[in-house]
Amino acid sequence: MTLDDLLAVPYEPDGRSAHGADCYGLTRLARVYLFGKPWMPCHGAVEGIDKKALTQAVQAEAVNYRVAAAYPGAIATAWRAKLCTHIAIVVEVDGRRMILETNEPGGEDHGPRLVPVRAFEHRFLKVVYYDD
Predict the structure, then answer these.
(1) How many CB atoms lie within 10 A of CB 93?
(2) Among 118, 124, 95, 94, CA closest to 23
(3) Is the dihedral of CA 36, 52, 56, 44 positive or negative?
(4) pLDDT band at 21 (very low <50, low <70, confident <90, very high)
(5) What does the alpha-carbon distance between residue 61 and residue 45 come to, in Å, rounded to a whole number?
(6) Which CATH architecture has domain 3-131?
């Protein structure tokens, strides 16, 4: 699966596969197929719209990762106050670091897209990057 393939994955609330993925599902796919990293847990019971459950899942998994810089393969977690509201992944396109994301739960409907790191960071109060 290539970056172009991931950009064609339709947004699906709570989706975890190439047939449809939410922000967490797309991040899981990208880590494996673009960076050869191990699968993150599915967390299939966590609905993206439930920010409290999403935050608890991120906090539970964060102990397995280290805080990192925004480099290719790093997971981008977006925060508003104490809630994680979105997750994405850093990729490199033509020598530029970009964020591969799909719809933010409860946000606009755009499907998978590439966003400059700086533009992604400006949308949130805090962005924390993780890698293993």
Answers:
(1) 12
(2) 124
(3) negative
(4) very high
(5) 15
(6) Alpha-Beta Complex (3.90)
Whole-angstrom distance, CA of residue 18 vs CA of residue 50: 22
Domain boundaries, the chain: 3-131
- Three-state DSSP at 28 gives helix
CA 123 – CA 110 distance, rounded (Å): 15
Lookup: tokens for 86: 């979105």
Token pair, residue 58, equals 């991120």
Contacts of residue 69, Cβ cutoff 8 Å, sequence gap at least 6: 129
Whole-number pLDDT of residue 105: 63
Q: Phi and psi (nearest 5°) for 22?
A: -90, -170
Taking the C-alpha atoms of residue 108 and residue 104, their distance in angstroms, rounded to an integer, is: 7
Model pTM?
A: 0.92
The total of other beta-carbon atoms located within 10 Å of residue 23's CB is 26
**84, β-bridge pairs:** 79
Residue 33 corresponds to which tokens in the numbers above?
A: 């197929």
